[in-house]
């Protein structure tokens, strides 16, 4: 049975900060952010967007009524949980009007959660070929003002519809994963921002890529020459290159040129959005598919997923007949281009505007946000969402 990615949806909030502007305010050479780290802008998240509303915005752009009735599982990958108990997937079932006969759960492992979800979805479709699974990757990456990780912040969601006979990519069965208990990045339940050893996390990312790539090669006999493109988890757009380049050195020039050119195409959107944790790998895939003129049916794409803590996985897929007809270039380019550029002062104000722990009702409906779904407020410690101005939630 052919199982894979049927559709991809993406959402990022309608505000952004230029990295050169941030660099100037922080007294840093702008080229460090734009070239050294490889980021041009970062997405800024208003109080009206959280992981649920972002996920709903990403999913609603791609789901037809037929898809909705076929979905019987929602797996929500995130490391920006809004509740220790209630799963974000349940809110989504309601907001998107999905059937109650759906299995819904949240999956956490840093930036790896959505890859775990994708693999579980594959198994579910194998047993239930007529089903579709909605996999979500939705996160807000906040390291803190003036922190080392500040230029690698971002926010956004990717929605992935997994099915048999997919319209975009068939996923190969072979996969290679590696888990090791390392403290490179973690966020204790009492902390607003993660603890991160930036340099160490870079090293672990590179080590995990070597591990899973070598293992995958041995298992499958596939090598770099067999790939049209590779997509990486991208905490910032330079990260994947640090892992890839040393291993590519022994390949012939044509293979190197091809993979490096596709790598750049797969980082165009990420450079404008920043880190979206679980969604970064899949945003890179969307960027590649929507910006490359060099991909053809049957081309194999490799994926490296990394979640600090840490888990790494390498897996592959092949582009299926007609994939070009199921992309949303215009919609995604508009989403990115129509964002409002904020000043550093406005960014810092938005950054500090967070949900209060209080018994009082909090109403965000007067805050500007053009997105379809938004967080309208909080009442009795329950989140209230709205769709284009209409309160939907109890
Ligand atoms: N022009 C061009 N490049 C410049 C530059 C300039 N003026 N100044 C610095 N750079 C380069 C550095 O040489 C370095 O490149 P390299 O990584 O290829 O050596 C890069 O910019 C970053 O500089 P560095 O001094 O290492 O930055 P930093 O100490 O501020 O840390 C991170 C960078 C990514 C580690 C930090 O932002 C972080 O902790 N991020 C969050 C964690 C993370 O994303 N981890 C990734 C694995 S999941």
TrEMBL record:
Keywords: Acyltransferase, Transferase. Residues 176-248, 257-369 form the Hydroxymethylglutaryl-coenzyme A synthase C-terminal domain. One of its GO terms (molecular function) is hydroxymethylglutaryl-CoA synthase activity. It is an enzyme of class 2 (transferase). Its EC number is 2.3.3.10. Pfam families: HMG_CoA_synt_C, HMG_CoA_synt_N. Gene3D superfamilies: 3.40.47.10. Residues 3-164 form the Hydroxymethylglutaryl-coenzyme A synthase N-terminal domain. This is Hydroxymethylglutaryl-CoA synthase. The lineage of its organism: Bacteria, Bacillati, Bacillota, Bacilli, Lactobacillales.
């Amino acid at each position: 049975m052919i199982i894979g990615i049927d559709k991809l949806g993406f959402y990022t909030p309608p505000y952004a900060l230029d990295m050169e502007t941030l660099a100037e305010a922080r007294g840093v050479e702008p080229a460090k952010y734009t070239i050294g780290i490889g980021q041009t802008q970062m997405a800024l998240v208003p109080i009206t967007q959280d992981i649920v509303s972002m996920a709903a915005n990403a999913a609603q752009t791609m789901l037809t009524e037929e898809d909705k009735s076929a979905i019987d599982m929602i797996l929500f990958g995130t490391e920006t949980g809004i509740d220790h108990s209630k799963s974000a997937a349940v809110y989504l079932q309601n907001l998107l009007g999905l059937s109650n006969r759906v299995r819904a759960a949240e999956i956490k492992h840093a930036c790896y959660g959505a890859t775990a979800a994708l693999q579980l979805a594959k198994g579910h479709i194998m047993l239930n070929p007529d089903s579709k699974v909605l996999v979500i990757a939705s996160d807000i990456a906040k390291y803190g003002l003036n922190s080392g990780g500040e230029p690698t912040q971002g926010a956004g969601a990717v929605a992935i519809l997994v099915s048999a006979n997919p319209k975009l990519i068939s996923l190969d069965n072979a996969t290679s994963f590696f888990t090791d208990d390392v403290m490179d990045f973690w966020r204790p339940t009492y902390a607003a921002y993660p603890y991160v050893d930036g340099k160490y996390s870079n090293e672990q990312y590179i080590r995990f890529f070597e591990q899973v790539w070598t293992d995958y090669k041995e298992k499958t006999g596939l090598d770099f020459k067999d790939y049209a493109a590779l997509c990486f988890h991208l905490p910032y757009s330079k990260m994947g290159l640090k892992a890839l380049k040393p291993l590519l050195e022994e390949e012939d020039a044509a293979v190197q040129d091809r993979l490096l050119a596709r790598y750049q195409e797969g980082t165009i959107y990420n450079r404008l959005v920043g880190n979206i944790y679980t969604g970064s790998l899949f945003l890179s895939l969307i960027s590649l598919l929507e910006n490359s003129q060099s991909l053809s049916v049957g081309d194999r794409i490799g994926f490296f997923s990394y979640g600090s803590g840490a888990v790494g996985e390498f897996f592959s897929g092949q582009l299926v007949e007609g994939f070009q007809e199921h992309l949303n270039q215009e919609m995604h380019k508009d989403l990115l281009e129509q964002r409002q550029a904020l000043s550093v002062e406005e960014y810092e104000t938005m950054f500090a505007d967070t949900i209060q722990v209080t018994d009082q009702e909090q109403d965000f409906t007067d805050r500007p946000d053009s997105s379809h779904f938004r967080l309208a407020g909080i009442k009795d410690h329950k989140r209230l969402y709205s769709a284009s101005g209409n309160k939907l939630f109890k």
